[in-house]
Amino acid sequence: MEKINKLIKSFRDKGLKITPQRLAIFKILENNNSHPSAEQIYHNLKRGYPTISLATVYKTLEILEEMGEVKLLKINYDRKRYDPDCSPHHHLICVGCRKIVDIFEDYSNALKVPSQIKDEFTITDFRVEFFGLCKKCKNKRKFKEK
Amino acid sequence: MEKINKLIKSFRDKGLKITPQRLAIFKILENNNSHPSAEQIYHNLKRGYPTISLATVYKTLEILEEMGEVKLLKINYDRKRYDPDCSPHHHLICVGCRKIVDIFEDYSNALKVPSQIKDEFTITDFRVEFFGLCKKCKNKRKFKEK
DNA sequence: TTGAGTGCAAAAGCTTTGCATTCGT
DNA sequence: ACGAATGCAAAGCTTTTGCACTCAA
């Protein structure tokens, strides 16, 4: 996320307004590495804005996401997807049609984790997900909604 | 997923019964690399079992998941999580308390994609997710539900 | 026979939407 | 002043649950 001043400018440039609620959301997100949910942000805001609604939080986050100012840590598979192949492999997701293809490559030696983190965590598994566009979707204008 | 015969045995060994519906689900999943959703499986089954219910599909898939016979391609973050840090980095998720920590490592040169896939897709992004347990959770018996 | 599974409908949980009111510019 | 944002409540969707009935073993 950009610095708040820049963010404010980006919003205004788009004709979006800066409200106290939005500003408060910006501040909560600034230098925040706790990967909060909308609910958590909402909770935090309640102190200063007892009347704020979850809907407002979601709406603002949606704008930030569209602007590329926050990243969603949950992939827009519309719903749960099940993979009967439990051998170690990874996936490439077409962000256009949501097709998922398997990638059978062993990355286990390629992915070094900082030793500081290794000390704190016991890592049991990992997954790599690639995102892109298949040929068909590359030639489309519009992708699936959502 | 194991071969169907083995799967049947695993189910019976656990006191779980083999019903036509379950068998049909097994068959749909066998050698299936389309990463289907419960809905899609349900849809497929409708032909042969017009009365089958989505609930049955979900329930069977849950068992398969618990048995490690299928893998879920959607992470159990309980809800959306937002990351204001859009610089390229990756995540480690503690499967006990769901804490998410950042991993700042550049894996872009480490992750080779089969050329056959590179021909078919334009890859725009990727993410690496590690799973494990933090020290606290390692010493716990029970983790967060779900 | 009997405990497990099915299928229906209802509930649950997260997220989005509609709308009247309020507010930023 | 006027379009945008807010906050509430309702709706939407996916997934789960409860329960009477049915069925596999």
Account of the 3D structure:
The structure is a homodimer of 146-residue chains. With 146 residues, the first copy, chain A, is of the alpha+beta class. Helices cover 37% and strands 18% of the residues of chain A. In chain A, strands 4-3-5 form a 3-stranded mixed β-sheet. In chain A, helix 3 (38-48) packs across helix 4. The longest helix of chain A is centred in the middle third of the chain and has 13 residues, at 54-66. The first copy, chain A, is extended, with a radius of gyration of 19 Å. At the A-B interface, helix 3, helix 4, strand 1, strand 2 and strand 3 of A face helix 3, helix 4, strand 1, strand 2 and strand 3 of B. Strand 1 of chain A pairs antiparallel with strand 2 (82-83) of chain B. Chain A binds a DNA duplex (25 and 25 nucleotides) through residues 12, 15-19, 21-22, 37-39, 51-56, 58-60, 62, 78-80.
CATH domain class of the largest domain in chain A? Mainly Alpha
Indicate the percent of residues in helices of chain A: 25-40%
- Sketch the major β-sheet of chain A: 3 strands, mixed
Mean pLDDT of chain A: 89
Give the domain tally of chain A. 2
Structure described in brief:
The structure is a homodimer of 146-residue chains. The first copy, chain A, is 37% helix and 18% strand.
